From TrEMBL:
This is Ultraviolet-B receptor UVR8. It comes from the Eukaryota. The lineage of its organism: Eukaryota, Viridiplantae, Streptophyta, Embryophyta, Tracheophyta. Coiled coil: none annotated. RCC repeats lie at residues 164-215, 216-269, 270-322, 326-379, 380-431, 432-498, 499-534. Keywords: Receptor, Repeat. Residues 148-482 form the RCC1-like domain.
Amino acid sequence: MDATTSGTPTIQYHNIPDQPISTIVATLLPAFQRQTRHCFGDSSPGEFPLSANPSIVLHVLTACSLDPQDLAKLEATCSFFRQPANFAPDFDLSLSELAALDMCQKRAIFKPMTSEQRQDLKQRCGGSWKLVLRFFLAGEACCRREKSQAVAGPGHSIAVTSNGVVYSFGSNSSGQLGHGTTEEECRPQLIRSLQGIRIIQATAGAGRTMLISDAGQVYAFGKDSFGETEFGVEGSKLVTTPQLVESLRNIYVVQAAIGNFFTAVLSREGRVYTFSWGSDEKLGHHTEPGDVEPHLLLGDLENIPVVQIVAGYCYLLCLACQPSGMSVYSVGCGLGGKLGHGSRTDEKYPRLIVQFQLLNLQPVVVAAGAWHAAVVGRDGRVCTWGWGRYGCLGHGNEECESVPKVVEALSKVKAVHVATGDYTTFVVSDDGDVYSFGCGESASLGHNNGDDGQGIRHANVVSPELVASLKQVNERVVQISLTNSIYWNAHTFALTESGKLYAFGAGDKGQLGIELVANQTERGNPELVDVDLN
């Protein structure tokens, strides 16, 4: 079985003999079904306690949160971990499978599932609890699910604490801040109507915000439209407080993504649903722009679990988790080569990007800018493709790339996170360093080196450069979010490991969460926002 790793050191078991338990235990205990897991047993001479009482081993495997790859290697190394453990709830499961099931049961999104739903998910992931655990871990790693996060939307911003409390600030002409008004806010303000609801994920579009609760429910406010968000006629009705999306009530949602012409959501089981933009089957279905009903994304991904979705201006990328490994599918508008298939043609149904197999790269994080895309591989390599304007691909030029291409300038950097916007890209390394490249407009790249506060902060950067201003905060950066809209001046957030939020770039609508002095419209250096996300 092929399962991915989480980056944790692999435990080696080469010294465990691969032999029947009867050769280890002096007196073979009678087989029985264990309803209760315990750590007691006889201490008769010659008995091997761990094999006589596998509950001890199971406790260690679960408590150490071993990676699914390590659990699979245990089964391959020793028959003790392959044979049925005779434990409830499934007496036929091996210790490794039971440990994976136990770790799945700790997940908030797994707990409310019925037995039938759990078995369906198991089969969808490949028939193993280890693969289900890998599916959950992959989603948590790329989406900061149930962790603090910040969203730099088009003109407005959302900040979610580790406890699921939500703050919003910035432009509010459509009620997208959720405070019951249309007044701008230049400081983070608590969305009080969400009291008692824990939010685990947030996304923002032009004039619109969507929040996902730990119960899988979706709340939306701002423009009342799942379709064209910038200047379309749809969404003339304004919703100024979070409202439950009724059409998604029966779908347990874990993530949402807002493009310019459509909205997409990801279910707990890894299914992708889309709203709007269905004319001419652009997303594999026939619907009107104002359609409010979710439609399953048809094609290859119907039977393949997806762990992350990201939306560009007119296209969607999906990070899929299969027994053979991780992969990326794309659908939508292909102009500029941003779908990654070596051409500029549109795709009505999700299509596998095969270039990653040729590069021997396992994608773990995917990002969709307005016109270009990026991926981080398990080995820390970064690939970019699409429109290369302003150097946003990081290849030292402004050429387009129609298939993913490794950013060679980052060959000595092990990346763990990537974020993309309107012709801008940020990369976070495993040691917390941040690199950026692309369009320098609005000072959103963070390269402000001038003594007068102006310096070269508006210059375009065609190759990755270390964001020295973030290095000076002396904190490990874990997430970057930047504006992904062609109509708004960009701003950027950097979230640190301790929950501190730093902002820079355009702030003319209060979207930085910092009050600017007279005639100021942006900040070139990262400034601490007065909100504690931990």
